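User:
Can I borrow your eye for a moment on a structure tokenisation matter? Would you put together a sequence-and-structure record for a protein of your own picking? Please set it down just below, with no commentary around it:
AI:
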Amino acid sequence: DHGRFLSEEAAARVEAEEATRRAEKLLATEEANIHGLQAKIEELEADKVSMQATLTSAARRAEIAENTLDKERFEVAAAEDWADNMQEEVAELHAKLATAAAATLRAERAEELLKNAALTFASVVAAAALTRSMD
């Protein structure tokens, strides 16, 4: 009986040692998994920091682009105002040109009338001189 007890005790000890080795192996595997997960978490946190920096940079670029767009809209509005003013000035110049053309035509007509009056006066003077010479 005592031999059997020793044999069972030895078998139990061997089984306990195997269970301990399996538990230690499982523990080592789980610790490796935990280290792997911790490394992955650190990598993801680094990616998060990188993404936040990228987002911050993109937001800044968007703000700069928006400011540039506002500036360009202002410049376009100013250019449109300038173009409107130029159109008004061109219209005024066309009106002045039309007035000047009309005045030129009137001056040419007046010059014609003056020439005709001069010719008429010269004819009257010549007729009067001819009439005196006949007397």
